[in-house]
Design a protein that fits this description.
Elements: H1 6-19, H2 27-35, H3 39-55, H4 68-88
């Protein structure tokens, strides 16, 4: 996943700031505001926060890796579940 340039994250913050004039100071307030974001804005927010954490020296979790066998097994399970749902539905 590509991390957008900092200016993209800043524009997200400034566009939201225009709509929300009161200062958000608690995590609960920030979480509530994040709930109102579109899926695309939430993705941008996550990337923005990850970039900030890295720049502050916080170690973020390494990306998870899966074997082809694991992925194939999950896909097969999902497809079997879909067939079951279609038969029952």
């Amino acid at each position: 996943m590509r991390v957008p340039p900092a200016r993209g994250a800043a524009s997200l913050a400034s566009s939201r700031a225009a709509a929300y004039h009161e200062r958000m100071s608690t995590l609960a307030e920030i979480e509530k505001a994040a709930d109102a974001l579109s899926p695309e804005e939430k993705e941008r927010l996550i990337l923005f926060l990850a970039t900030r954490l890295r720049s502050e020296g916080v170690r973020t979790p390494a990306p998870r890796t899966f074997t082809r066998a694991q992925l194939d097994a999950w896909i097969a399970e999902d497809e079997a579940d879909l067939r079951t749902l279609k038969r029952e539905g």
